[in-house]
Amino acid sequence: MTMRITGLSSGLDTESIIRELTKVQSDKVTKVKSDQKKLEMKQDKWKELNKKVVTFYNKTLGNLRFDSSYAKKTTKVSNENAVSIVTSGEAMNSTQTLSVDKLASSAYLTGGKLSAATGTLKATTSISSISGYSSTANVHKAAVLDEDGNETSPAVTDDDYKNTVRIRFGKAPAEGETDTREYVDIKVDPEKGIVDAIAAFKEAKSTSGNGINASFDATQGRIYMTSDKSGEDESFSIDFDHSDLRVVNALGLNYDDNEDATYQAGADSQITLNGAVYTSNDNNFEVNGLSITARQVASDITLQTEDDTSGIYDMVKGFLKEYNELVKEMATLYNAENADDYDILTAEQKEEMTDEEIEDWNKKIDEGLLSKDATIFKVMSEMKKIMLSAYDLGDVNADGKAVKTAFSTFGIHTLSYFEAEENDRGMWHIDGDEDDEFTSGNDDYLKAAIKNNPDLVRSFFKNIANDMYSKIGGLMKSTDFSSAYTLYEDKKMKTDINNYKTKLKDEQKKLESMQDKYYDQFANMEKAMTNLNSQQSALSGMIGTG
Question: Which of 100, 285, 414, 516 is geometrically suited to a Cys-Cys bond with 294, CB 3.0 to 4.6 A?
């Protein structure tokens, strides 16, 4: 690039002169930048709108198309403090009796109170420094002999389970039965603190992932343990025959011999439904379409299951709400003032404007990016057309004549031309909807239809949902210019943005080339003038000397 130092000899403001000489090309650069930025903003606008349409398509329309969405049930419970119910569509309409006999619990061990041999007991107190700890090994049991005096179980040596606490998981075997429960052996260093033992207990996991929660309360001087799951089969216990009793006793965990320690095995919950008994390792039960959660022991509970008309009503209302929001947004974008005459402001232009003027200018650009967009018009028109559909679903009038079913059958309609604002004219309203300021005072035909003729409601909205799902799906098919699940020509738009980037580089090169040319010309002029000034000075000097 040419060295741009000019105006030293001529005194001319060459920067301003060259800026004026290259203004046309500079404006081209600015225009390309503006068009590129506006196209990127338009792309973002479309992405946002397209995401909402895809969500409406996949979730709302997707659910509304299937019979299962209309098979809504609800269960009334006479004692909601004792039990809660979630009802699936497969549940039978019925009245049932229930009692909560007992709640599930986790196995829980409260250790005996500990004290330090000297000083104050702390979490960091070593196990060997706890009162009652014995350095003498007492980990042993005698050999078990059969009738003939042969060993069926060998004697345990002192070192077999040294510094080990064995935790077993599951329901304890009956007396006399072999203990085959899964277990984990936890190594505990007596010279380390109680907090280290607690960490070892918490970290230990059996082969299948069973473990325990453990903590130490220094104020109470006790260790607490609980199974990480509730229920009889998720219980835990200490296997005293295969543990180092020095460690077990020091930590206060020997609930067999220490009256100060308590242990409670895990227990299953139990309910009785219509005379049948059910158990669970937690407080949750799945019975014939009912998800039952027991909360407290209670009897004589009545469950009444029936069709959930309010659930179907809310689903239809939700569908119309999402449709209305989409159509209103499309109408607002389409009917906005065109932004073609508004370019992105340059830094120089912003300096000449107030903050309010800048904000207003940018707002007009943002709002008008999709003004009169042909794709929006097509999508909006197709959706509105489907909403005006009427179907022959076997419905008859008071005279017994067949009539087609439409939204008007259920008291659902749009407002008149003069009642609604321009962008609200495609929105649908439900008569009797307490949340609708325009129609809340009207009779609610939709609720009556859901209660008295649910099959007609289901058939109509399934038809509407299927038709709209098919139409929107067709509009979102992949083409040479658009990706799948995309309404707008995202591929073409991306290409156009890249083309703008290339064009911008070309125009910037042209501008720099023009600027360099003019700077060279002015530099040559300055050089010539410098030489001329030198010659004049020399001539003046010669004349003055003569």
Answer: 100
Q: What is residue 484's predicted lDDT score, i.e. its pLDDT?
A: 95
C-alpha span between 461 and 469 (Å, rounded) = 12
In sequence order, what are the beta bridge partners of 83?
Answer: 294
Q: How far apart are CA 197 and CA 371, in angstroms?
A: 70
Pairing of strands 164-169, 151-153: unpaired
Closest CA to 367 of 315, 399, 332, 323: 332
Backbone dihedral angles phi then psi of residue 535, each to the nearest 5 degrees: -65, -45
Q: Mean per-residue pLDDT for 45-62?
A: 96
Q: What is the C-alpha to C-alpha distance for residues 279 and 271, in angstroms, rounded to an integer?
A: 7
> Does the predicted TM-score (pTM) go above 0.85?
no
Strand ordering across the sheet containing 222-227: 212-217, 222-227, 108-110, 262-264
Which two three-digit tokens encode residue 334?
């389409």
| Residue 387: closest CA among 301, 440, 285, 460 | 460
SS3 76: strand
Model pLDDT, residue 371: 95
* Whether residue 224 has pLDDT greater than 50: yes
- What value does the mean pLDDT take over residues 93-116? 96
Q: In this structure, what token pair is assigned to residue 537?
A: 């000075």
Q: Which of 191, 186, 217, 227 is nearest to 203 (CA)?
A: 186
Q: Above 90 in pLDDT, residue 463?
A: yes
Q: Which two tokens stand for residue 392?
A: 């022959």
Q: Any idea which residue has 């003498």 for tokens? A: 136
d(CA 127, CA 191): 6
> What pLDDT, on the 0 to 100 scale, is given for residue 80?
96
Residue 1 has pLDDT above 80, yes or no: no
Tell me the C-alpha distance between 411 and 450, whole Å.
Answer: 12
Quick check: 33 and 504 in contact, CB under 8 A? yes
Please check whether residue 17 is in contact with residue 532, taking contact to mean a CB–CB distance below 8 angstroms: no
Q: How far apart are CA 269 and CA 281, in angstroms?
A: 6
The CA-atom distances, in angstroms, between 243 and each of 161, 213, 440, 467 are: 6, 19, 73, 71
Residue-by-residue DSSP string for 416-460? PTTTS-GGGTT-EEETT-TT-TTTTTS--HHHHHHHH-HHHHHHH
Can you read off the two tokens belonging to residue 270?
């139990």
